[in-house]
Design a protein that fits this description.
With 210 residues, the protein is α/β, with parallel strands linked by helices. The chain is built from six helices and 13 strands. The strands form three sheets. The protein has a six-stranded mixed β-sheet with strand order 1-2-3-4-5-6, covered by helices on one side. The structure holds zinc ion (ZN). The site of zinc ion has 4 residues, from loops.
């Protein structure tokens, strides 16, 4: 059975997805977080690193961890431009908190230098992760960013990166590149998930609470 373990890195969450035949790491937090993440991984052997989207607080330690874990990196190709040019796509929000977060995030990301990594495994809707030992597949969740993805397990849990937020209360992405796409992705999450929604920032969300 596929199980989800939260790996907390301050303000941002990564996740370890473990199954009978292997494990994958989802997201890598900010730059220089690899030791903190490795301590929480323990002795687990990671077959693949999956990045939910291209923001620096999720891809920041991908290069370090790929090297230390000897694991390839997977993400959606639409977000690769964000690795080298994080301010190239504007973020918006429609609430007061969203607008504040959008401005703050854009400013921090513009100053954050992410070590480049090799995208070995480009992924999109339906990509099956069982070849990496985990019974789960990729779902496209665009809106927060064009290349945002989620990972849906065979037990109905979903890890969504920033396609949903749990700040103050469960909501869709409070900041996004495209509001309509973001809202459609929230509806998709609600249709697909029968367990818990694991988010990039905050505690897990019950699907009935989103
Ligand atoms: Zn993000």
């Amino acid at each position: 059975m596929c199980t989800v373990q939260r790996i907390s890195c301050g303000f941002v969450n990564c996740y370890l997805l473990m199954d009978d035949a292997g494990a994958i790491l989802i997201d890598t937090a900010n730059p220089h977080c690899s030791d903190l993440i490795l301590r929480q991984l323990g002795n687990v052997s990671v077959n693949l690193i999956v990045l939910t989207h291209g923001h620096s607080d999720h891809v920041g330690s991908a290069a370090e961890l790929s090297q230390k874990l000897h694991a390839p990196v997977a993400m959606h190709e639409a977000d690769t431009p964000l690795i080298t040019a994080p301010a190239s796509r504007k973020l918006q929000g429609h609430t007061l908190l969203g607008r504040v977060l959008a401005g703050a995030s854009q400013s921090v990301m513009a100053k954050t230098r992410v070590s480049p990594f090799v995208l070995t495994v480009p992924v999109d809707e339906g990509f099956d992760l069982s070849a990496y030992g985990v019974r789960a597949h990729v779902v496209a969740l665009p809106g927060h960013t064009a290349g945002s993805i989620g990972i849906l397990t065979n037990t109905g849990d979903i890890i969504v990166g920033d396609a949903a937020f749990h700040m103050l209360r469960p909501t869709g992405a409070r900041i996004y590149e495209d509001r309509k796409e973001m809202e459609a992705s929230v509806e998709k999450i609600k249709c697909l998930c029968t367990g818990s929604i694991y988010v990039g920032h905050g505690n897990p969300i019950k699907v009935t609470d989103l």
